[in-house]
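pls design
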């Protein structure tokens, strides 16, 4: 999101924002609907350039908002690490509250899992749900064949979290962007000591329990490396090294230190903290020039604060345009 926010802001592009922007979600976990977008229902904004806020994907509704030549991409994550992360983020919710640990949940999923809950997707096949399919779907193998065929036609590119830099290089290539456009620092990540080390048994149990997600990940992981092969292995290695070199250089310029939320000096840069997950953030170096500080700050601003800033900015621009047209009509 940070990459897309910065790209759009620097070029004065129009974002499709949720019309209730309290948590940067399009009324999640409902299926996305075009009416959820600010300015769409009233036709006050006719052309949107970027849609990147959290949603349960519904292509037909998205197409009502976005142009015909829109580039669609998404990102998948290993279901094992995703499940561990989900458990830490949502342990306090009724989805996991009966389980003392993720290991206990995976040993007794049918006893501890409530499939009728509005938020049951947090506990099973999270990605399948977000992509618009039934996360409790029947006969995983047959149902998966339907899912992957549909997704192949819906998305121009599927990125892989575990190969994030390689993913950024492919995205840069597909969109004809520059290194600076895809440059990023890790955001919304937890302290290392806040991450649970899972046994092999638990990991295998997670794959079985999240079978749709696992098959999805395995399939698109293979297609990802086919794209890398086509791009060129040696060329990929060189571009990843260049991207990392630029990131390290930018980090030396911008970052004083990476710290837990309580030690962040500027409140504006403090990330949202779930109940149990401890999210890290950054302190910027002092003495930065105005332009340097502006860029550095944009690189480390959490999604909630950045989204709200961009929404206020877009509303102000829209208001000025309306006011100008109104005045010209009077003249």
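designed seq:
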């Amino acid at each position: 999101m940070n990459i897309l926010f910065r790209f759009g802001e620097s070029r004065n592009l129009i974002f499709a924002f949720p019309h209730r922007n309290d948590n940067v979600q399009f009324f999640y976990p409902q299926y996305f609907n075009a009416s959820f977008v600010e300015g769409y229902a009233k036709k006050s904004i006719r052309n949107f350039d970027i849609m990147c806020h959290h949603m349960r994907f519904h292509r037909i509704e998205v197409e009502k908002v976005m142009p015909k030549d829109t580039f669609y991409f998404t990102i998948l994550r290993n279901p094992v690490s995703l499940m561990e992360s989900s458990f830490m983020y949502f342990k306090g919710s009724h989805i996991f509250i009966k389980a003392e640990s993720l290991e206990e949940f995976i040993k007794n999923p049918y006893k501890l899992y409530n499939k009728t809950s509005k938020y049951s997707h947090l506990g099973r096949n999270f990605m399948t749900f977000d992509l618009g399919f039934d996360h409790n779907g029947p006969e995983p193998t047959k149902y998966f064949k339907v899912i992957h065929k549909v997704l192949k036609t819906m998305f121009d590119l599927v990125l892989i979290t575990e190969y994030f830099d390689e993913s950024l290089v492919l995205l840069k290539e597909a969109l004809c962007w520059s290194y600076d456009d895809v440059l990023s620092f890790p955001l919304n990540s937890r302290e290392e000591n806040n991450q649970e080390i899972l046994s092999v048994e638990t990991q295998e149990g997670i794959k079985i329990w999240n079978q749709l997600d696992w098959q999805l990940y395995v399939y698109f992981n293979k297609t990802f490396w086919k794209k890398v092969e086509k791009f060129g292995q040696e060329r990929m290695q060189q571009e990843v090294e260049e991207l990392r070199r630029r990131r390290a250089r930018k980090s030396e310029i911008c970052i004083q230190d990476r710290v837990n939320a309580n030690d962040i000096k500027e409140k504006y840069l403090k990330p949202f903290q779930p109940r149990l997950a401890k999210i890290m953030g950054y302190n910027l170096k002092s003495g930065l020039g105005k332009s340097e500080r502006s860029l550095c700050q944009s690189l480390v601003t959490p999604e909630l604060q950045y989204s709200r800033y961009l929404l206020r900015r877009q509303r102000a621009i829209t208001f000025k345009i309306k006011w100008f047209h109104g005045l010209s009509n009077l003249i």
